[in-house]
Amino acid sequence: MELELARLAERIEGHLAKLRCFSATVEGVTRLPFTVEARQAIDYLAEAMKQAGMTVRLDASGALIGRYEGQTAQTVVLGSHYDSVPRGGAFDGVAGVVCGLELVRELAVTGRRLPWSLEVVATNDEEGVRFGGGFFSSKAFLGLWQPAQLAAIHDGEGISLAAAMRGFGLEPEQIGQAVWDLTNIRCFIEIHCEQGPVLEQQQQEIGIVSGIVGMRRYAISLQGRPDHAGTTPMTMRTDALALAARLISKAEDTALAYPGAVATVGFCDIRPNVVNTIAGQVVCSLDIRSRWEADIQAMETEILGFIRNLARTRQAGCEVNRTLTVQPVELDRTLQGLLENSCRRRGYAFGHLPSGAGHDALQLATAVATAMVFVPSRQGRSHCPEEYSDSRHLAKAVLAVLDTLENLP
């Protein structure tokens, strides 16, 4: 058993070492959707899936799907995403894809076939950092995209999502072909690094995710007036950056009043961004998350109401566009129970915890039975070059999921 675990961990570690090379930056991993680096990752994963015994296809959303036939057409889907944030880590997303393909390899080397077929999916643009939304493939699986929407969404360089797809060899008009036949999907299971400190602090090897937070994301444009920093009195300024500072402070104060909630302004574009000129415009983000939909709505009302009123008082412009709406979800209790049984039988230290990050599982849980398995993140670090998860923990997650699949009712 120990030798089996060590060999599995070694294969997982080897995949991740190769995948981290497909990056637009030397520091960390930068693999945005529809880029050269994304294509390199797809090509590598496609070959690895074939070697693990799967047939492989690229769907209309840019998701890579490997299939291992079982005794019936009913399908269990495993996987995660292959894109990253800028200068992110080498484990977020791709670790779950690699774990899925290595689970299939465990079956294929002995010719074992489960009562259901298996698909390993590497989803595209889960992070949403290029086009501002996220969960692109998982939304496509559920039929939530129309071709007209893809032409209306643009990245920071003015490239539309539709144009980026065409440059990647995809046809946005065919996005409907990515829709899953949900009648054939038995369940979806995603292995992922925790991206937080809880499992490490509690000395647990496996985290069984109980639910995933809901999210609201906004693009906020604050319009002031650019004036001379030295000759414009403080009482005669319309400083867009001062407004943004108040927004940031209000977001922090509001989130602290709601247990377990978070609010973040993580992006600011300051214009003209000159040392001796008052900011004339600030375009910034606002991200609100909570397990409870009522709290999300209350925070939204409080924070946005505050900044709109303040902008009006200071005779500034304030435009708010919601770019992402995701409802909180609870994950499948039957799957959680099977994962718990496996961890107990194998002697793995485990716990239950919610996910504060959004994942493809968040989208798919609205339509199919879904589970998530977390492994510890060293020092809780993620979305940074320091991100790290032990390959032995990932291997244990694979074996726990394999037990679960073998015992599905």
From TrEMBL:
<feature type="binding site">
    <location>
        <position position="92"/>
    </location>
    <ligand>
        <name>Zn(2+) 2</name>
    </ligand>
</feature>
<protein>
    <submittedName>
        <fullName>Allantoate deiminase</fullName>
    </submittedName>
</protein>
<dbReference type="GO" id="GO:0016813">
    <property type="term" value="F:hydrolase activity, acting on carbon-nitrogen (but not peptide) bonds, in linear amidines"/>
</dbReference>
<comment type="subunit">
    <text>Homodimer.</text>
</comment>
<keyword id="KW-0862">Zinc</keyword>
<keyword id="KW-0464">Manganese</keyword>
<feature type="binding site">
    <location>
        <position position="127"/>
    </location>
    <ligand>
        <name>Zn(2+) 2</name>
    </ligand>
</feature>
<keyword id="KW-0479">Metal-binding</keyword>
<dbReference type="InterPro" id="IPR036264">
    <property type="entry name" value="Bact_exopeptidase_dim_dom"/>
</dbReference>
<dbReference type="Pfam" id="PF01546">
    <property type="entry name" value="Peptidase_M20"/>
</dbReference>
<dbReference type="InterPro" id="IPR010158">
    <property type="entry name" value="Amidase_Cbmase"/>
</dbReference>
<feature type="binding site">
    <location>
        <position position="92"/>
    </location>
    <ligand>
        <name>Zn(2+) 1</name>
    </ligand>
</feature>
<keyword id="KW-0378">Hydrolase</keyword>
<feature type="binding site">
    <location>
        <position position="289"/>
    </location>
    <ligand>
        <name>allantoate</name>
    </ligand>
</feature>
<feature type="binding site">
    <location>
        <position position="217"/>
    </location>
    <ligand>
        <name>allantoate</name>
    </ligand>
</feature>
<dbReference type="GO" id="GO:0046872">
    <property type="term" value="F:metal ion binding"/>
</dbReference>
<dbReference type="InterPro" id="IPR002933">
    <property type="entry name" value="Peptidase_M20"/>
</dbReference>
<feature type="binding site">
    <location>
        <position position="383"/>
    </location>
    <ligand>
        <name>Zn(2+) 2</name>
    </ligand>
</feature>
<feature type="binding site">
    <location>
        <position position="192"/>
    </location>
    <ligand>
        <name>Zn(2+) 1</name>
    </ligand>
</feature>
<feature type="binding site">
    <location>
        <position position="276"/>
    </location>
    <ligand>
        <name>allantoate</name>
    </ligand>
</feature>
<comment type="similarity">
    <text>Belongs to the peptidase M20 family.</text>
</comment>
<feature type="binding site">
    <location>
        <position position="81"/>
    </location>
    <ligand>
        <name>Zn(2+) 1</name>
    </ligand>
</feature>
